[in-house]
Design a protein that fits this description.
- This protein is an alpha/beta fold.
- The protein has a domain of about 190 residues: Rossmann fold (3-Layer(aba) Sandwich), CATH 3.40.50.
- It is built from 11 helices and 13 strands.
- Strands 3-2-1-4-5-7-11 form a 7-stranded parallel sheet, with helices on both faces. The protein has a two-stranded parallel ribbon with strand order 6-13. Strands 8-10 form a two-stranded parallel ribbon.
- Helix 1 crosses helix 7 and helix 8 packs parallel to helix 11.
- The longest helix is centred in the middle third of the chain and has 16 residues.
- The protein is globular.
- The two termini are about 35 Å apart.
- This is SDR family oxidoreductase.
- Keywords: NAD.
- InterPro entries: NAD(P)-bd_dom_sf.
Length: about 280
């Protein structure tokens, strides 16, 4: 039986599981809480409380997906369980971030762009990518843009009036719907190419204020108020996202994996979220 071991099972991994479980796959997902373990079990996923013994799961696994965020020391699973490097699996996927490319002042980047992260989070992702490459496992790296999808959209803040359009000249973000992440991962599993890295994003990088304006239009509500970036009250993490501006190319997922995006721009993605709400 094909078995996916999902390390740090979260939002994107759950979307992949929704594709694999109906196809007869076994999915084992790590989680830190009994409450989440119960929710995973209800969705047909075998929960594995972490920290815990990965040995039996590694023995069963034919595929591994890694979603856990690294820290200053790198990937938490490799550090805690170095025997992962001896796993006999057909495919390993590591969910990284387009933040590894750093700031390009609105310019385009692709998978060949040098990794020049800005700030600690991007540097930690580069370290974790390097650690996973060093295992010699059949690794595939997926650099995800900003993720949205069911339960993660702008509509709630637009409806309750808390949304603000932060204006910073030349600011571009790329984004991706979680269902497109899942189909990219499934396509890679079907057509493995160990050593490959893929940018996972839609076709239209856009200023964040444009997305909020479109969400408001879909709801028939006024545009959220505009605030200049320099005057905006933001958390340090939110402000750090604005330290990078780039447009991310996604040609490789199309040309190599044959992916046809379900949501090629935020317009289709937001329309689908609203229709499902």
């Amino acid at each position: 039986m094909k078995t996916l071991l999902s390390l740090g099972h979260g939002y994107s991994a759950d979307a992949l599981a929704r594709l694999l479980v109906p196809q007869g796959w076994s999915v084992i997902g790590t989680t830190r809480t009994p409450e989440k373990a119960a929710r995973l079990k209800a969705r047909g996923i075998t929960p594995l409380l972490w920290p815990g013994d990965l040995g039996p799961a590694l023995a069963q696994a034919t595929h591994i997906l890694v979603s856990a965020a690294p820290d200053a020391a790198g990937d938490p699973f490799l550090l805690a369980c170095p025997q992962i490097a001896q796993a006999r699996v057909d495919w390993v996927g590591y969910l990284s971030t387009t933040g590894v490319y750093g700031d390009h002042q609105g310019g385009w980047v692709d998978e060949a762009t040098p990794l020049t992260p800005v700030g600690a989070r991007g540097a930690q992702r580069v370290l974790a990518e390097t650690q996973w490459r060093a295992t010699g496992l059949p690794l595939h790296i997926f650099r995800l843009a900003g993720i949205y999808g069911p339960g993660r959209g702008p509509f709630e803040k637009v409806r309750d009036g808390s949304a603000r359009r932060i204006i910073k000249a030349g600011q571009y973000f790329s984004r991706t719907h979680v269902e497109d992440i899942a189909q990219v991962l499934a396509a890679s599993i079907a057509r493995p190419n160990p050593g490959a890295a893929y940018n996972v994003c839609d076709d239209e990088p856009a200023p964040p204020e444009d997305v909020l304006s479109h969400a408001a239009a879909l709801l028939g509500l006024p545009e959220p108020p505009a605030i200049d970036f320099d005057q905006a009250e933001m958390t340090p993490m939110a402000r750090s996202f604005y330290a990078e501006s780039k447009r991310v190319r996604n040609d490789r997922i199309k040309d190599e994996l044959g992916v046809r995006l379900l949501y090629p721009t935020y317009r289709e993605g937001l329309a689908a979220l609203l229709a499902a709400s």
